[in-house]
Design goal:
- Helix content is 31%, strand content 21%.
- By secondary structure, it is an alpha/beta fold.
- It is globular and about 60 Å long.
- The protein starts with 32 loop residues before the first helix and ends in a 12-residue tail after the last strand.
């Protein structure tokens, strides 16, 4: 069973909606083109600064990754071939340590979705071995898969909220399906909703929320059980640049509390500014694995 390194690890600080620096379109209706352009330049500047504040140390920029701690994710000579001889992953070996933040990048069809599906045991590798939290998925019985997934939080691009349930009910559902006691649910759910900055939206339905608010509900649902691993599949893909900053700040705080984060993304600026570990896939193979990398390889900085 997966365990956090320390049950006493502090929770992130509550997310402040004001952090995002959001400017309403309605506020700009009467402004000139020059004023609007200056506003846009200022928002871009604030976004770049906010992402830079979340950056890791750059002293190891673009150095190849070498394991340092106990593995949260381990793939050993892993190959996945779909029917029709379509290769999803091709002989991939890599390790992601506990507590790391890792960006998974690459063009469509490069193997990112296959990578994630293997970790969730939605599919089984054709060859090789996949381990999550020290547990080999090759020998994991189907009856044990729900327990595996309870220890992995998932955040998706399209939120996947239950449309007829409130914010509270969407988050509570993640605990209800685990058979948690009512008193536990009543304690944990308001706490996590407050953490993501939605205490005043607790009784709202998804359609009454903005895209950024819906994604924060999705994160709250994924994190309510404090999983040691959080998998984010394009979590900012449907959000405007301003709103995406708030989501990244929230995930950063969760990571600082000890949760391993694996994020598949196409957000080039975000990856370049944050300087976290980058695993780049191409045609199912690991093309690059940099401890502090960018979205694409820059020969001048290699």
């Amino acid at each position: 069973m997966l365990k956090r390194d320390s049950p006493s690890d502090p929770l992130p600080e509550p997310f402040d909606v004001a952090d995002s620096g959001y400017v309403s379109i309605a506020d700009t209706d009467l402004r000139s083109e020059d004023e609007l352009e200056r506003e846009a330049d200022e928002r871009r500047r604030r976004r770049a600064e906010a992402l830079s504040e979340l950056a890791g140390e750059t002293s190891e920029f673009r150095r190849p990754f070498a394991p340092r701690n106990e593995a949260m994710i381990l793939l050993e000579n892993c190959t996945m071939v779909y029917p029709g001889d379509v290769v999803g992953l091709d002989d991939v070996t890599l390790q992601i340590d506990k507590g790391e933040w890792v960006f998974l990048v690459g063009p469509s069809g490069s193997g990112k979705s296959t990578f994630i599906k293997l970790l969730l045991k939605e599919i089984d590798a054709t060859n090789g071995n996949v381990q999550v939290g020290g547990k080999s998925l090759r020998t994991l019985k189907r009856s044990q898969v729900p327990k595996l997934r309870r220890n992995i939080g998932c955040v998706f691009q399209d939120f996947k909220l239950l449309p007829t349930r409130t914010v509270y009910e969407n988050v509570a559902y993640a605990l209800e399906v685990q058979g948690q006691r009512l008193e536990v649910i009543e304690r944990k759910v308001p706490e996590i909703i407050g953490l993501v900055g939605l205490a005043d939206k607790i009784d709202k339905l998804p359609h009454e929320l903005s895209g950024g608010q819906q994604q924060r509900v999705s994160i709250a649902r994924a994190f309510v059980n404090h999983p040691p691993l959080l998998i984010c599949d394009e979590p900012t893909g449907n959000l405007d640049p301003e709103t995406s900053i708030g989501i990244m700040q929230l995930l950063y705080r969760i990571n600082r509390a000890g949760t391993t984060i694996l994020m598949a993304t196409h957000d080039r600026e975000m990856v370049d500014k944050m300087r976290r570990r980058v695993i780049a896939l191409e045609e199912g193979r690991v093309a690059r694995d940099d401890r502090r990398g960018g979205y694409v390889e820059d020969e001048e900085q290699v």
